[in-house]
Write a structure and sequence with these properties.
Layout: E1 7-12, H1 18-29, E2 32-35, H2 36-49, H3 61-67, E3 73-77, E4 83-87, E5 90-91, H4 99-109, H5 112-125, E6 131-135, H6 138-142, E7 148-153, H7 156-169, H8 176-192, E8 205-208, H9 214-231
Parallel strand pairs: 1-6, 1-7, 2-6, 7-8
Antiparallel strand pairs: 3-4, 4-5
Helix pairs in contact: 1-9, 2-4, 2-5, 4-8, 7-8
The structure holds 2'-deoxycytidine-5'-monophosphate (DC).
Length: 232
């Protein structure tokens, strides 16, 4: 790791490919990678299992807020170099990616108490810098002082196609239309919620990766990283 490690914030819509970009960049430069969306998903899974999500998909805000001190989310490194999301000591990595969580995560992530608790944990994770974190509000709220901020964009159709392929590969029985509807619905909630909606930070560099290969994205990101660290 560089002598003066920095913070890299990568924000964007769901399935914009930002997690892949963030994970690969972190591994190339020897930084820690944190998927902040996984933390919102883990809290959502907890809420589902505790019966705090009504039949209408809306969370019981008071019950969830009261339970927050008992919800511990962290990440456990795996032998293959990836990391798994842990909810109160249990590996929930596969469970949090399922549609039953995706379908109700946005209203949970819109709750101010949930955001405050997770943002505090995220700030703590970045205290020593040397971190790449992806999410919706990383450059605007969690690390407004991040040295490098990236805002990833791609059309809803492109993103739904990616998510659909991922889910089919994992054996989920979903249709493309279901996945597209979920993407569009979540975009709407994520950009219009009152509490830290998804928006591009004024000092973030935007990238539309709809027509880029993974290798092109890697090279572009590494260039941005080198530009910032060389200028320091
Ligand atoms: O990136 P993702 O699809 O795994 O995110 C899951 C949900 O969590 C999504 O509805 C947006 C929300 N989220 C958020 O509000 N803030 C973040 N920093 C990360 C995710």
């Amino acid at each position: 790791m560089e002598k003066n490690p920095i913070i890299i914030a990568i924000d964007g819509f769901s399935s914009s490919g930002k997690s892949t970009m963030a994970r690969r960049l972190a591994s190339a430069i020897g930084y820690r990678y944190i998927d902040s969306g996984a933390m919102y998903r883990a809290v959502t899974l907890f809420a589902l299992e505790a019966g705090f999500i009504g039949p209408d998909g809306q969370p019981d805000a008071a019950a969830l807020e009261a339970a927050l001190p008992h919800i511990h989310v962290d990440f456990e490194p795996q032998p293959d170099g990836t990391q798994h999301t842990m909810l109160n000591g249990v590996d929930v990595e596969a469970e949090i990616r399922r549609l039953r969580v995706s379908n109700v995560v946005s209203p949970v992530a819109a709750l101010p108490a949930v955001r405050h608790a997770l943002v505090a944990m995220q700030k703590e994770m970045g205290r020593k810098r040397g971190i790449v974190m992806d999410g919706r509000d990383i450059g605007t709220v969690v690390f407004p002082d991040a040295e490098l901020k990236i805002y990833v964009d791609a059309s809803a159709e492109t993103r739904a196609r990616r998510r659909f392929k991922e889910m089919i590969d994992k054996g989920s029985a979903v249709t493309f239309e279901e996945v597209l509807a979920n993407v569009v619905h979540r975009d709407h909630i994520d950009t219009t919620r009152a509490e830290s909606p998804l928006r591009r930070a004024d000092d973030a560099i935007a990238i539309d990766n709809s027509n880029m290969t993974i290798e092109e994205q890697d090279a572009w990101l590494l260039d941005q990283f080198e530009r910032v660290t060389n200028a320091k």
